[in-house]
Amino acid sequence: MQNEYLEMLIVNGYECDYLDFKEKSYSKQNKFELIKDIMAMANSKYDGDKYIVTGVKERAFEGKMIVGIDINEHIDSAHYHDLIIKNIEPDIHFDYFHYQYNNKWLGIFKIYNNSNRPYMLKKQYGTYLEGYCVIRKGSHTCTAIRGDYDHFFRQQEKFEVAFLENTLHGVYVREGAAGIRVAIRNITKLPVTLIYGTLYIKLGNKVLSKHPVYGFNKQAEEDFKLYMPANYEEVGELLVAFGSTDCLRLGLNEFGSTEEVFTFELIFGDAQHNEYSVSIRDGDVFAIGEFLWKVKLRNHL
Q1: Burial class (CB in 10 A: 0-12, 13-18, 19+), 3
Q2: What pTM, to 2 d.p., does this model score?
Q3: By the 8 A CB rule, do 213 and 238 touch?
Q4: DSSP reduced 3-state for 80
Q5: What would the CATH number be for the domain defined by 158-299?
Q6: How far apart are CA 184 and CA 188, in angstroms?
Q7: pLDDT tens digits for 66-122?
Q8: CA separation for the pair 42, 203 (Å, rounded)
């Protein structure tokens, strides 16, 4: 699954706050460039995995070209980790590995699980003083400013949503709903009231279907609302709108299953116009009973 996602980034990805392309590998002579780029990605406001891909040339008017790197000039990943650990605090989680694409080798830095922002220099490095901090914004690396620090420290008080399973179960025929287990945590000092939510089911970058949230823990109502007190967690089954046409869109067979692997993206909104999202890339869909009548009718025409 990781290989498919990497190839999607290489072929269709563009430089943004979670993806950067470099034509050449980082050299031992220019260590600070790597320190700065890893720090900037770790500080990015994007909460998912972030990637720096070396061996890809991208120019505004020339487009993207896979040029590859010379693996005979291999620098061990332990060297990169040692460099980052000695110069950035707190510790940044990242992996470095080689990936072969179209008979050319690429170097991949994967930066992940970096929620303890801000990350900054722990000691002076050349002309850069202790405490120096940069952040990735879109396709640019910028020096962190006051607003960025405000955001960093606000993010330590989080409202979090997590999938607890990867299968959406279309089993509530009477309610016209499907269910999936989630955890919702309000780790802030203020209450939050969710007033809408939507589950998007995608294949690659294409949205196949979207499902408004109906309720939580089998309380299906079209006017969804969920009150979350401060420092509170709810774990249960999220119900979303689901119907026979969705089974067609998602390619389910007459037994209610499919071999396709989907991306699920769940987006909530609260009464203060804030949005919260979470996604998984190994989603599965299953349905039963009357949800499948259109699929069966199609198969028997």
Answers
A1: exposed
A2: 0.55
A3: yes
A4: helix
A5: 2.60.40.10
A6: 12
A7: 999 988 776 788 899 999 999 999 999 999 999 999 899 999 999 998 888 999 999
A8: 28
